Amino acid sequence: AQSVAQPEDQVNVAEGNPLTVKCTYSVSGNPYLFWYVQYPNRGLQFLLKYITGDNLVKGSYGFEAEFNKSQTSFHLKKPSALVSDSALYFCAVRGDGGSQGNLIFGKGTKLSVKP
Amino acid sequence: EPEVTQTPSHQVTQMGQEVILRCVPISNHLYFYWYRQILGQKVEFLVSFYNNEISEKSEIFDDQFSVERPDGSNFTLKIRSTKLEDSAMYFCASSEAGLPEQFFGPGTRLTVL
Known about the structure:
The structure holds two protein chains of two kinds. Chain A is mostly beta strands. Chain A has strands at about 5, 10-15, 20, 25, 35-40, 45-50, 55-60, 65-70, 75-80, 85-95, 105, 110-115. In chain A, the strands form three sheets. In chain A, strands 2, 5, 6, 10, 11 and 12 form a six-stranded mixed beta sheet that branches. A four-stranded antiparallel beta sheet of chain A has the order 3-9-8-7, with no helix packed on it. Chain A has a two-stranded antiparallel sheet with strand order 1-4. Chain B contains no helices and eleven strands. Chain B has strands at about 5, 10-15, 20-25, 30-35, 45-50, 55, 65-70, 75-80, 90-95, 105, 110. The interface of A and B includes residues 34, 36, 42 and 106 of A.
């Protein structure tokens, strides 16, 4: 069965410090991996994706994510957190990696960045 | 920047009533989706739609649900006879042909009393 795990319900970081939000996945075939962010009363906003190629992908707002095939992980990172990064972050994987199919989401991780 | 829009933002209905949730996908996108998020739970896929037909649906998407693209811009989700457990945030999404990332609307919060 295909699944996404985000092991942390909440991550707390001080402003200016690096942040990591963890994600592991299980999927048949090659994964298409995504990160989305949700601010209060807003929809899911696309941050970045991994399809193929370089394991380190860069996205919006200074975020990046590292694909690790052996560990089946796709952790979200940012070198220097901002208070405005505080939001709910969702990792997602494409169902079969080969078609324009549905996304399978993790349960989300709440990021709290304190001044 | 083009966005997916959804109306209404909040819908309250009585159990057994029909509701229609509306979405306007990004204009050059060809693939459309509905997802839902029950409070405190994961975002779950309901259905995908392409070329005027359902291309994939989950087991949640039973006979009570239907989707339609009534014109060139709108994409609707109908729930025929709502149940209490249909209370959730419903997200519409769309994607461009050949690109895997989906762009989501702000959601419609459905409350079934």
